[in-house]
Write a structure and sequence with these properties.
377 residues; mainly alpha; Lysozyme; two-stranded antiparallel sheet; 15 helices; 8 strands; elongated
Length: 377
């Protein structure tokens, strides 16, 4: 009875799959053993990888196996590659450094702007705050350029160039990128060799180099490893217009989105380095959807003027006994929105006389609550 029921359900699902969509096909990809047959010569940044050495081959095979076992992650590497790698490749080419350095970003972040490590490293190239600041990245409560593809790639190039000058090898530079230049130099001095593949280094650093090389092997020839993506499978290339903005005060990102004729989410996704809901006072270069730069500044100026003009009409003066929750309830707005509009923390104290901005589509204030304009306004 039960067997008949399951057979019936299975037949029904099979029928539905063929009626309403393309039927599932069996996965076809090479065996893991055949995938490990890496032949010489193998290089990283033009430097030979001595896979004839047993320990080298064993380390590489381990990382290659782990990558191939996590096939969904590799598929995401490939799908994201068309979005980001062309920009990274161009910057590497303009800086006259090896193109293979792009695989460091894949090993570090899988090309994700917001990923954070346990050590506080963030972004495409996984900069910790100290190193990011040292190489010119803005990192503060308003902006974190570790998440910006272009700024962080330029910083990574400068850092790797310095490491190459210090070590004389791109492989050692990548190792130092992972473990630090001082620690690497100490090991080279103690072990009396500057050949990465003959150095005993922290296991994380040994794995890091082999993970980079594994990414190179797979992305250089995905079909060999059973990843047969069509052009439509890749995420679209990152295309954009760049606009310069001089903000005389903190400016809502939604105004930028409206001027670019798009949504807040699009602007945030294109500019992951911008934190919060406002663009801080100062000069900025912002990415907006391609084709939306034409007449952007006129639209933005009109929106900005309207926002500034209406802001004074939306000021509430804090009274004795008020708190953020009671004010939000009084005006029928979410507490979270009140915090965003005024850039406040939930624990931040407010005092009588403080001025709060309250945006509402329809103002339903009582006469005592209404803010009357001063004489002459």
């Amino acid at each position: 009875m039960k067997l008949g029921f399951f057979l019936l359900v299975g037949a029904g699902l099979f029928s539905l799959s063929n009626t309403y969509g393309e039927g599932l096909t069996g996965a076809r990809f090479p065996s893991l053993i055949s995938s490990l047959r890496v032949s010489a010569p193998l290089t990283f940044c033009g430097e030979r990888v001595p896979i004839e050495i047993r320990e080298t081959r064993e380390g590489l095979e381990k990382e290659l196996l782990l990558a191939l076992w996590d096939r969904p992650q590799v598929i995401l590497w490939l799908k994201r590659s068309r979005r980001y790698l062309p920009h990274i490749e161009r910057m590497l080419r303009e800086a006259h450094v090896p193109a293979d350095l792009k695989y460091i970003a894949i090993a570090e972040s899988a090309l994700r702007p917001h990923v954070r490590s346990r050590r506080g490293a963030i972004g495409f190239w996984q900069f910790v705050p100290y190193t990011g600041l040292q190489y010119g990245l803005t990192i503060n409560e308003h902006m974190d350029e570790r998440r910006n593809l272009f700024a962080s790639t330029q910083a990574a190039i400068r850092y790797l160039k310095d490491l190459y000058k210090a070590t004389g090898s791109w492989t050692l530079a990548a190792a130092a990128y992972n473990m630090g230049e001082v620690g690497l130099k100490a090991e080279i001095l103690e072990q009396e060799t500057d050949n990465f593949y003959q150095l005993y280094l922290p296991l994380e650093t040994q794995r890091f180099i082999f993970r980079i090389i594994s990414a190179k092997l797979i992305l250089s020839n995905p079909g060999k490893y059973g990843f047969d993506l069509s052009e439509a499978d890749y995420y679209p290339a990152l295309e954009f217009d760049r606009i310069d903005l001089d903000c005389l005060q903190d400016t809502p990102i939604r105004l930028i989105a409206q001027a670019a004729q798009t949504h807040f989410k699009v602007i945030k996704n294109m500019n992951p380095e911008v934190r919060g809901h406002y663009l801080a006072r100062g000069s900025h270069t912002i990415l907006i959807p391609k084709g939306s730069a034409e007449d952007f500044h006129r639209r933005f100026q009109d929106l900005l003027e309207d926002w500034l003009a209406s802001e004074q009409e939306r000021i509430y003066i804090v009274k004795k006994g008020d708190n953020l929750s009671s004010i939000a309830d009084r005006f029928g707005v979410p507490l979270a929105a009140l915090l965003i509009w005024n850039r406040l923390d939930l624990e931040a104290p407010i005092y009588p006389g403080d001025r709060l901005i309250i945006y509402r589509k329809v103002l339903q204030q009582t006469e005592t609550e209404r803010v009357e304009p001063e004489e002459g306004e």
